[in-house]
Specification:
Layout (H helix, E strand, L loop, with lengths): L1 H5 L12 E4 L6 E4 L9 E7 L4 E4 L4 E10 L3 E6 L11 E5 L4 E6 L8 E9 L2 E12 L30 H8 L6 H8 L4 H19 L3 E12 L5 E9 L6 E5 L2 E2 L10 E6 L2 E6 L8 E7 L2 E8 L6 E3 L4 E4 L3 E8 L7 E4 L2 E2 L6 E5 L5 E6 L8 E7 L2 E10 L17 E3 L3 H64 L5 E4 L2 E2 L6 E6 L2 E6 L8 E7 L2 E7 L6 E2 L1 H7 L3 E4 L4 E8 L5 E6 L2 E2 L6 E5 L3 E6 L8 E9 L2 E12 L5 E10 L4 E8 L9 E8 L7 E7 L4 E4 L7 E10 L2 E2 L3 E2 L3 E2 L13 E5 L4 E4 L13 E8 L6 E2 L10 E4 L7 E10 L2 E2 L9 E2 L5 E5 L6 E5 L4 E10 L3 E6 L2 E2 L5 E4 L3 E6 L8 E8 L4 E11 L8 E4 L6 E5 L12 E8 L6 E7 L3 E4 ...
Parallel strand pairs: 4-10, 20-27, 21-28, 36-43, 62-69, 80-87
Antiparallel strand pairs: 1-2, 2-10, 3-5, 5-8, 6-9, 7-8, 9-10, 11-12, 12-16, 13-14, 13-17, 15-16, 17-18, 19-21, 21-25, 22-23, 22-26, 24-25, 26-27, 29-30, 29-33, 31-32, 33-34, 35-37, 37-41, 38-39, 38-42, 40-41, 42-43, 44-45, 45-48, 46-47, 46-49, 49-50, 49-51, 49-52, 53-54, 54-57, 55-56, 55-58, ...
Length: 1157
């Protein structure tokens, strides 16, 4: 009753506020409706926000989000330009398994392009985020004048022709490492590796030449693969020659846009030289050839193939007991080498906890969760490509009573799994796939046989036609030769030729040949053949194209390097037929003889001389030689070295302060043909000396200088010169740069006291409005005691960086004022107004107990009683202890502190048993707590046990009370029984507060032994053993009719609250009477709170847990046709008092305390 008395509920009315803050997730704004969120509750937040979407008109668009918050937030969707009320155009749904919210827009249209908002709200706040939907219009017929608007950047894509290799093969192979060549060849059906490697080397050379124009280096190419979060990624390391070069992403030859912040469908994440491309929310139409181009050069290609796999059998929910294994299994429609398993959205790997297996045909995939515990329950997901399925794992607690308080042993059984059914389904699916493959192979073989037969018939027909033509021509030639068996003559320019002229004239029947060996220029002319008045002639020409002397060409190809104003020369030997035409070309322009250009030419040599060379003359130099038989070209290069040009403008000022001037510049436009090694700086103070002071030489990286030798407010001018091996450039003169001037910051706001304690005062202030034009470095805090004019510094460890400060160097109870001043580069500014006076003392707080405390305590007699109470209160409270509403005796020692109190009894006695109450009271309020301490000892055994039979089939056990019964009101008795058959002791009664118990079901012919124990809070006593009870079988006796009568009547009971209570009596009668129990004249036979039995006339009622309402009059009525019998008793519940008596005791306790203290 002390607990119920001290409970007090105080209700606070919370005002509505609107505190806005940003979430850890970028782009999410949270509005908090209350000043303090209760413990265990939280405002809504997005764990995954919707991403921006670009989609073609007519397709399905959807946004997906995941939220957190307690209580669970409500999700709503909105758009900027209209409502979302049409259920056909906008579908909002929730996936309970994955805890994801969706907004689906089927058949999206151009007018639905907008900014969409997602709201998550509960009673403590609201979170909102946005996502943009961009709709690409479908193909339309455009007017001729709008044709340019329809042009989209594309790449030419070669289509695969019948019987040729897919062009994608070369694109993928060029971007693959050597270890993957065999895999790519098998995928595209290429078996001639030697031919493949030869072609690949040629294409690689072309690709490298193309890439070298825009890229310095490409390495670490990783092809596209599906990640565990459902996205796809591919990456490469690439160093660009020009950092401003554009990087394009193509899919099947069409450029696709990508975002840099991860909010789009296609994204690019650049980390240093690493380029990581990702594709979110994968769909089947995302498959294709992806290419990365820098400007117009292709740098990487990867083929993304999505296997059209389905789950024939999905994973099912599994219920497993603790320490048991759980098995998830699924069957796929097509072989898949490895699928992704996740548990509670966390990727799972093969290890001690998880066992991931795949069947030989790659159709059955299994996940075994070993040694299940409560932490393993949740949603498990299987992902194959872009298809997934999920199921719950439910872990049931092990209810084995033998394992309570300890760890259960490891079970060898496995829950879940499909067993033979999955194997059968997989076998059927494998057979189906094999049949489809066989049908496809048969169709291919039939087509190939048909094509081969057609080709063979066509080839044979062509061969037969050719043989017939050859036979006809041979017959005709034979006839002509037989008809004309005469000799002809050969002529050159009308002159007869013979074998003596160094020629060979050959005649074979009707065939005449003229052979000229080692042709020379003189052999050119008109050759003719005459026979029988017939003539045939032809013109013979001997060509002589130009050629270079190889040694001379090798020397000519080397670059010519000269200094400025020097002469550059080139010479090259050649040969060839006249006439020769020689042309010199520089940077695609022909060089002609002039003031600085001299050209020399002979029949076998050509020369070029350029005098007074300048940097503008640098470039490529070519010679072009041409005659009637061909053209030949050779290339060289002219490099002119000179001093660099001045550094470029503009000069960017990085910092101007009181103590430093920092600026940077751009390198020279022309470095003179060799790298710049140093920069020379000179300085002049404007308005002071006109001389230039040499600052020194600076390295070429970085191109900036920080001058710390400046005076506040003065202006300076600088000369910057570049220096290389050839000399020093002209000076770049900067504009006048002024150093900073002294400008102190203004006063901050007066410090505000956030909280005050006896050992710490927390302050906060606002920055000054006027910062002096520079950054605020920190703050100085000063304090003074009330009534004093002396301000002393509070921050002795240096300036305060933040606008908050916790001052711990305070004296308890003292009153303080505070002021603060800002610090910038110029110094300490004006101090703020003083704060309000604050006292260094803890805030007032009503006493409250901390930590868990026991309300009941049992101690063995003679042991020490020690009970600790922890509390918080301000100011320090007064502490009072009571025992049973009266002050404590001198045997009890009380020790109090600022945060607790201890009750100590060095040597306890039974008289120390009672209810101890602590009252903690200060000027704000009071708090009380009560604990019942019971001092007891091991019980002494009861006296001798006697046995008696009053009713056949029963034995009444009686015993002498234990000597401790009067000292311990919680002492009760336990009765055990053993018969001659079972030979084991079995408890037949417990919580007996009387000295008699009737045991039923006593069978004739058996021997029985009984033990009686005394039991209290310390345990059991030694047993009191009964003599052996024997019964013999009697012949059946004829029962005569008799009215009901009680052999053993009910006894008066007194029991403590919270314990069990047995009531029993014995009744006889023939016929068997009907027995009814009553409590205060109300029948109990149908009340489930009472356990009533009637065995062989022994009527027993058990009250499971005694309470104050169970006290009163109990009666038993036995009815039969021959009469009625009744007996009654009274049950008193110990410690039950009325509310008025309770109030009187509290009043008495309070009055006693006041009188005592």
């Amino acid at each position: 009753f002390f607990k119920r008395l001290n409970k007090l509920t105080i209700c606070f009315r919370t005002s509505t506020v609107a505190i806005k803050r940003r979430s850890r997730v970028p782009g999410v704004m949270i509005t908090q409706f209350v000043e303090e969120v209760p413990e265990g509750m939280s405002t809504p937040d997005f764990t995954r926000k919707p991403i921006a979407l670009t989609i073609q008109e007519g397709k399905l668009a959807f946004f997906k989000s995941m939220v957190s918050g307690v209580p669970k937030p409500n999700i709503t969707w909105a758009r900027n330009k209209g409502p979302l009320e049409d259920p056909v155009k906008y579908i909002s749904r929730y996936d309970e398994t994955m805890e994801e919210y969706f907004l689906e827009i089927p058949n999206v249209r151009a007018e639905q392009a907008d900014t969409y908002k997602c709201f998550a709200a509960n009673e403590y706040g609201r979170a909102v985020c946005t996502a943009t939907l961009n709709v690409i219009e479908g193909p339309k017929r455009a007017a001729p004048e709008d044709f340019r608007k329809m042009v989209v950047r594309t790449k030419p894509q070669l289509k695969k022709k019948e019987g040729e290799i897919d062009p994608k093969f070369w694109e993928v192979l060029l971007s693959s490492p050597k270890k993957d060549y065999e895999k790519v060849c098998m995928e595209y059906g290429v078996s001639d590796f030697r031919w493949m490697l030869k072609q690949l080397n040629l294409k690689k050379k072309e690709r490298e030449e193309e890439q070298a124009k825009v890229v310095e280096k490409i390495e670490n190419l990783k092809h596209i693969e599906v990640k565990r979060d459902g996205s796809a990624e591919f990456e490469l390391d690439m160093e660009l020659k020009n950092p401003n070069s554009q990087v394009f992403l193509f899919k099947d030859g069409v450029m696709v846009p990508y975002s840099d912040d991860g909010s789009g469908k296609h994204n690019l994440n650049k980390i240093g030289k690493k380029y990581i491309f990702s594709i979110n929310d994968l769909m089947p139409d995302d498959a294709g050839l992806y290419q990365v181009d820098v400007e117009d050069a292709n740098c990487f290609s990867t083929d993304f193939k999505i296997i059209p796999v389905e789950f024939v059998v999905k994973i099912q929910e599994v219920k497993a007991k603790e320490r048991e294994d759980a098995m998830f299994e699924c069957v796929l429609s097509h072989p898949f080498q490895k699928i992704v398993w996740t548990g509670k959205k966390i990727p799972l790997e093969q290890g001690d906890k998880f066992d991931i297996t795949v069947s030989e045909d790659h159709l059955i995939h299994s996940l075994k969760v070993k040694d299940c515990a409560q932490v393993d329950k949740g949603v498990y997901t299987a992902m194959a490509g872009i298809t997934s399925c999920n199921a719950w794992l439910i872990v049931e607690a092990d209810n084995d009573p033998n394992m309570r308080g300890g760890k259960a042993s490891r079970k060898t059984t496995t829950a879940g799994g499909g067993g033979e059914n999955l194997a059968k389904i997989a076998a059927e699916q494998s057979a189906k796939l094999q049949k489809e493959k066989d049908d496809l192979d048969a169709a291919r073989r039939a087509q190939a046989e048909k094509d081969a037969a057609d080709a063979a018939r066509q080839s044979q027909a062509e061969k037969d036609a050719a043989d017939a033509a050859r036979r006809a021509q041979a017959e005709k030639d034979a006839a002509d030769a037989a008809r004309r068996n005469c000799e002809g003559v050969w002529l050159k320019d009308g002159q007869l030729l013979t074998n003596e002229d160094g020629l060979k004239i050959i005649q074979d029947g009707a065939s005449h040949k003229l052979v000229i060996e080692n042709c020379k220029k003189d052999d050119a002319g008109v050759y003719s053949f005459e026979v029988d008045g017939h003539k045939s002639e032809a013109k013979f020409t001997v060509s002589d194209p130009p050629t270079f002397n190889m040694d001379s060409l090798r020397e000519f190809s080397k670059p010519v390097i000269v200094r400025a104003c020097e002469t550059a020369e080139w010479k090259l030997a050649f040969s060839g037929g006249d006439p020769m035409k020689i042309k010199w070309i520089k940077e695609d322009e022909e060089l002609l003889e002039g003031l600085n250009v001299k050209i020399e030419q002979t029949d076998i040599k050509a020369g070029l001389c350029i005098t007074d060379c300048q940097r503008r003359n640098c470039g490529e130099v070519k010679i072009n030689i041409k005659n009637d038989y061909g053209t030949l070209e050779a290339t060289s290069r002219l490099i002119v070295l000179d001093k660099p040009t001045p550094p470029q403008r503009p000069v960017e000022i990085v910092e101007t302060s009181l103590t430093a001037i920092e600026f940077k510049w751009k390198p020279p436009k022309d470095d003179g043909g060799c790298p710049v090694k140093h920069y020379i700086l000179e300085r002049q103070q404007v308005g002071g000396s006109k001389t230039w002071t040499n600052v020194g030489e600076l390295p070429n990286d970085p191109l900036k200088y920080r001058d710390t030798n400046v005076k506040p407010g003065k202006r300076y001018c600088y000369h910057i010169r570049a220096k290389n091996e050839e000399g020093v450039s002209n000076a770049l003169e900067t504009e006048d740069i002024q150093a900073g001037i002294l400008c102190y910051p203004g006063p901050p706001s007066a410090p505000k006291v956030v909280s005050a304690f006896k050992d710490c005062i927390n302050l906060v202030w606002s920055p000054p409005i006027n910062t002096g034009g520079t950054e605020t470095w920190g703050y100085n805090l000063e304090r003074r005691k009330k009534g004093s004019n002396f301000w002393s510094p509070a921050n002795l460890d240096g300036p305060i960086k933040d606008t908050t400060f916790a001052l711990k160097d305070v004296i308890e109870g003292a009153a303080y004022e505070f002021r603060v001043s800002a610090i910038n580069i110029s110094g300490v500014g004006e101090p703020s107004p003083p704060s309000v006076i604050v006292f260094a003392r803890d805030p007032k707080m009503r006493p409250q107990f901390t930590g868990k405390m026991k309300s009941f305590m049992v101690v063995r007699k003679g042991n020490t009683v020690r009970f600790n109470i922890n509390f918080e209160a301000s100011p320090l409270p007064d502490i009072y202890w009571l025992k049973d509403c009266v002050p404590l005796s001198k045997r009890v020692t009380i020790t109090n502190s600022d945060r607790g109190s201890q009750l100590l009894i060095p040597t306890s006695e039974r008289s120390d048993t009672g209810i101890f109450t602590i009252i903690v009271k200060n000027m704000v309020g009071q708090e009380t707590f009560s604990v019942e301490i019971r001092v007891t000892d091991d019980p002494k055994p009861p006296g001798p046990v006697e046995l008696e039979q009053n009713v056949p089939g029963t034995v009444t056990v009686t015993w002498t009370p234990s000597p401790d019964e009067k000292k311990d009101d919680r002492l009760h008795y336990v009765v055990y029984k053993r018969d001659s058959v079972k030979r084991t002791w079995r408890m037949v009664a417990d919580s007996l507060f009387n000295h008699k118990f009737t045991v039923i079901n006593i069978l004739p012919g058996r021997e029985y032994n009984f033990r009686v124990f005394a039991k209290n809070d310390m345990g059991l006593s030694e047993p009191a053993v009964s003599p052996t009870w024997r019964t013999t079988r009697r012949k059946g006796l004829e029962m005569l009719p008799c009215p009901p009568s009680f052999l053993l009547r009910l006894k008066i009971r007194t029991a403590p609250p919270g314990y069990e209570c047995y009531m029993s009596c014995a009744v006889r009668g023939d016929p068997k009477p009907h027995v009814t129990w009553y409590h205060n004249n109300v029948s109990l036979n149908t009340n489930t709170n009472y356990l009533i039995t009637n065995v062989c006339g022994v009527c027993t009622m058990l009250i499971l847990k005694i309470g104050p309402k169970d006290s009163g009059d109990y009666s038993v009525i036995a009815d039969s046709p021959l009469g009625r019998a009744e007996c009654s008793t009274k049950l008193t519940v110990r410690g039950s008092i009325s509310q008025s008596h309770h109030d009187k005791m509290l009043f008495f306790a309070t009055g006693t305390i006041c009188n005592y203290f």
